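S1.2 Input.
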Amino acid sequence: MLLLDLVRLSREGSLRIEGQIPPDDPLWEGTGIRLKEPLRVDLRANETQGGEIVVRGKVFGALAQECRRCLDPVDIPLREEVTLVFAPPESVEGNEDGEIRALPEGDKEVDLAEPIREEIVLSAPAFVLCEPDCKGLCPYCGTDLNETTCECVVDEPDPRWDTLRALKKE
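S1.3 Output.
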């Protein structure tokens, strides 16, 4: 948990929050995100005169993904600048875009792990390649075409394309 102490923040006006979110944290379940190492977080929280809390900083780590074409493991460095804005619930009403989050009423702490998770999910690449010229796997025998060639021969064209082939001949 990355907790922001609201009482201390109102007293001091600014706080630094440092911490880590481990790769096996239940926070990542169901997101499709796999971390290679703990996610390091370095944030600074400031309270504005309007009662909003602005949290800015950096998030560092590495994602463990698979190449889209050949399924080899690929480590993706992750360095994200994040800005989180929290406001009293009454000032957030009508804010449908979700850019401003509501401060929990009566709580003395805000857990920043969930908003950080959202930022990481949105910034993580959906598809990665091990190399830009990755040849992938043979769709018939599964051979890794980056390492060797296969002897697969496709004699029969896919019948689903027959209608388009007929149009092309006209």
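S1.4 Remarks. The radius of gyration is 24 Å.
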